[in-house]
Amino acid sequence: MRPLRLAVMLEQALELGGGFQQPLNDLLWLREWAAESGNEIVVYSPYPKTLAILKEFGIEARLRKFGFSDHLFLFLKYCGPFDLVQIALELKSPLERALIRDGIDVVHFTSTSKRHLLLYELPFIITIFDGCHRDAPEFPEVRTFGEFERREILFRLASTKAVAVIVNAPELIDDLCRRYAMERERAICIPFSPSTYVSRSAPDAAADAAVLAKYKLEPGYLFYPAQFWPHKNHITLLAALALLREQGIIERLVLCGSNRSGRDKLDRAIQSYGLSDQISIIGFVESAELAALYRGAAALVMPSYFGPTNLPPLEAWAVGTPVIYPQAFKAQAGDAAILFDYDDPRSLADAIAKLGNEGTRERLRAAGELRLAQFTEETEVGRRQFARHLERLKHRLALTPR
After folding, report:
1. What angle do CA 330, 244, 309 make, to 5 degrees?
2. What is the per-residue DSSP string for 107-158?
3. In angstroms, rounded to a whole number, what is the distance separating the alpha carbons of residues 320 and 339?
4. Between helices 94-101 and 68-79, what is the axis angle to 10°?
5. How far apart are CA 58 and CA 218, in angstroms?
6. Residue 279 DSSP SS3
7. How far, rounded to the nearest angstrom, does the alpha carbon of residue 303 sit from its chain's CA centroid?
8. What is the per-residue burial (b if ≥16 Cβ within 10 Å, else e) of 143-169?
9. Rounded mean pLDDT, 359-382
10. Which of 174, 231, 336, 386 could lock onto 368 through a cystine, CB 3.0 to 4.6 A?
11. In Å, how far are 17, 100, 136, 158, 306 from 141, measured between CA atoms?
12. What is the pLDDT of residues 12-45, one digit of tens each?
C-alpha cells in the first residue's frame, strides 16, 4: 500500500499568538508520525514568514496564497445555491486542483479554516479550538457584520463533513454533537501543549535578563499575553488593580499581544483608573522571548471569557509560574490555579492578593507541574488515536480510484 500523503495547512499568522503556536506543535508531531509510519506530509502556508520559521525547525513548506478565484469560490459557497452548480459541473477550486496535482490524499486544517469549503473531492480533517461565538455571542468579534453567521456555516459543515475533527477538550465534543449533530466517533481530543519555544527553553539568567531589559521590565510583574480583543477582558483586570491600589497594594502588569479592536478602550481605561505608571504594554513579542517573560512574572493572570481551554496556563506551568484563572475553566486548571469570577473585579483582586499567602506559590508550582504532566499524557493518548485514524483513512482511500 502506497504512503498516505497528508497536506498540513498552516493558515494562522504568527501574530495570532496561540493560534499559531498550537498548529506548530501539531506539525512537529505529524513530522514524527510521518517518519515513523512511512507516510508523507506536505506543509502549506500563505505566509512567507511562516516558511522561514519552519526552516528553523528543518521543515520545508510550500507557499500557497489564496487568489481571486479561491475567494470567489468561497463567496459562492457561502451563498448556498452554488453547490448545485458545482455538483452539476464538477467544478474544483484552484486550491483543490493544486493539491490534487501535488498528489495529496487528505487535507489537514490545523485551525478552523474556511477553506475546507473549497474542497469538492479531497477528504479533510478540521481543527476546532472552541465554540465561543455560541458561548458568548455578546462580543462583537464573534457577532457583528455577519461573523456569527459565517462561523455557523463553517462549524456546521466542518463538524459534519470532516473525516475527523480535532478538538482540545471533551466539553467541546459534547457541544459540537449537541449543536451540529457531529458524529462522536469522528472526534479526536488532543489537549493543548505549551509552545515549543517555551517548553524547550532552559532557564538562562543572562538571556532572561536581556529580554526583560529590552522591555525595561523588572521581575515580579503580573503577566497577561493576549491580543487586545474585548473578550480578553483586560478591563476587569484593570479594575482589579485599581481596587488593590486602594488597599495599598501596587501590582505591576505587563501586557503583550497584537493590537485588535479593544486597544483604544483599554488605553482610555488605563487613563481613567490612573494606572499608567503600573502597566507596560510591550506589543507583539517574538516567540523566543516568551519563556523569559513568563519566568520573570510573579503570576500569569488570564481573565479571558473564551475557553474551555487556553494555551497560556500550560506555558506558565511549564516554567513554574503561578496561574490566576477564571472559575469557569476549572476543568482545565484543576487545583493548579487561583480561581476567580471573570465578571467580578473584586474576585480577581482577591485572587491576586492570595499570591502573598504563605506557601501559595510553592503549592501552585507543584500543582502546575502535575497538571501539565496529566495533559501531556492525555495529548499522547489523543495523538495515538489520531495516528490510528490516519491509518484507517489510508486503507479506505486505497480502495478509492483517483
Report:
1. 20
2. EEESS--GGGGG-SSS-EEEE----HHHH-TTSGGGTGGGHHHHHHHHHHHH
3. 17
4. 120
5. 35
6. strand
7. 16
8. eeeeeeeebeebbebbbeebbbbbbbb
9. 95
10. 336
11. 17, 35, 10, 20, 12
12. 776 555 567 888 889 999 999 999 999 999 999 9
What is the phi/psi pair of residue 15, to 5°? -65, -10
For position 334, what pLDDT does the model report? 94
Helix H or strand E encompassing 310: none
Q: Indicate whether 260 pLDDT > 80.
A: no
* β-sheet with 40-45: strand ranges across: 61-63, 40-45, 5-9, 106-109, 124-127, 164-167, 187-189
Position of cell 483604544? Answer: 264
8-state DSSP, 296: T
Separation of alpha carbons 45 and 113, rounded Å? 12
Q: How far is CA 177 from CA 143, 156, 184, 199, 330, in A?
A: 22, 10, 7, 33, 22
Q: What is the pTM of this model?
A: 0.88
Grid cell 523569559 in the structure block, residue: 292
Q: Are 335 and 367 in contact (CB under 8 A)?
A: yes
Q: Tell how far CA 98 is from the center of its chain.
A: 28
8 Å CB contact between 19 and 10: no
43: left (phi over 0), alpha (psi -120 to 50) or beta: beta
* Residues 226-235 pLDDT 10s: 988 999 999 9
Q: Which residue has the cell 496535482?
A: 101
What cell was used for 131? 465554540
pLDDT of 158-174, one tens digit each?
999 999 999 999 999 99
The C-alpha cell 504512503 sits at 3
Question: Cell 471569557 maps to which residue?
Answer: 305
Determine the residue type at 96.
Answer: E
Walk across the sheet containing 297-301 and list its strands. Answer: 279-281, 253-256, 221-225, 297-301, 323-326, 338-340
